[in-house]
Write a structure and sequence with these properties.
By secondary structure, the protein is of the alpha/beta class. Helices cover about 40% and strands about 20% of the residues. The structure holds adenosine-5'-diphosphate and magnesium ion (MG). The site of magnesium ion has 4 residues, from helix 1.
Length: about 240
């Protein structure tokens, strides 16, 4: 329990690749032998469920948040034995869920668990705050542009207000174009380390289209390699604040 890491993965705004990262980082950690649970914090748009084709799941996080199921009931086994907690697609199940219960649901996480990754929904909704509060650390995701960095800064402020420790930024869809902010610039602006630079990689969208996670479909693609490297870094404790 002492060594369990609960990491909220947040970006401020959507569309930067947060869900893709949670899914594939979860698989990467699991394939390194770590007990890993990934949780869809966005109850109204269950993207993680879709990535794993779990949208037809009978039991979802929403049932657990409505008090109708336990966390164990709603954990689904994924690639490399990563445990996935999908949110519901059906409106009725969405309506009944009480997002503020997510932090207390964390007490049901099995003690042998090494990592819990939470996909934190964008914005400043009730769900956003609940998903953040389910974590102890926050990993920020952004693309290397000022608008995205500024959104990540806002997410970081909320996280720090909720007492989460910022462990670093993951830059996604890096193309190394002239107008992009550099790693150094971003570290200076955000005052946290850049833990990974995931390149723009067409295999990511290919995987989405095929309905197979990138790390399963193309484990040797540039983006997959960067995510695997990030997983190893997290294992070494790099970026760990407390
Ligand atoms: P978010 O959860 O932040 O809204 P998603 O993970 O759903 O973002 O990704 C948004 C879109 O960007 C998807 O179509 C996804 O396939 C694409 N994408 C994410 N990361 C990359 C990448 N490194 N290279 C290319 N496309 C990417
Ligand atoms: Mg998403």
């Amino acid at each position: 329990m002492i060594n369990m890491r609960r990491i909220a993965v947040a970006s401020g705004k959507g569309g930067v690749g947060r869900t893709t990262l949670v899914a594939n980082l979860g698989i990467a950690l699991a394939s390194l032998g770590k007990e890993t649970i990934i949780i869809d914090g966005s109850l109204t748009t269950p993207d993680l469920a879709l990535l794993f084709k779990l949208e037809k799941s009978v039991y979802t996080l929403n049932d657990a948040l409505a008090g109708d199921a336990t966390l164990a009931d709603v954990m689904h086994l994924g690639p490399k034995r990563v445990k996935i907690v999908p949110a519901a697609v059906a409106l009725e199940q969405v309506r009944r869920a009480r997002p503020e219960r997510l932090p207390e649901l964390m007490r049901q996480v099995p003690k042998k668990t090494d990592f819990v990754l939470i996909d934190v929904p964008s914005g400043l909704k009730r769900e956003t705050v609940s998903a953040m509060r389910a974590g102890r650390e926050v990993l920020l995701v952004a693309t290397p542009e000022m608008t995205s960095i500024s959104d990540a800064m806002k997410a970081r402020l909320i996280a720090e207000f909720l007492n989460l420790a910022p462990i670093g930024v993951v830059l996604n869809r890096v193309r190394r174009e002239e107008f992009e902010l550099t790693r150094g610039e971003i570290q200076t602006i955000m005052n946290v380390p850049v833990l990974a630079e995931i390149p723009e990689d067409e295999k990511v969208r290919q995987a989405l289209k095929r309905g197979t996670p990138l790390l399963e479909l193309n484990p040797n693609s540039p983006a997959a390699n960067a995510i695997q490297e990030l997983a190893r870094k997290l294992l070494r404790g790099r970026g760990r604040v407390r």
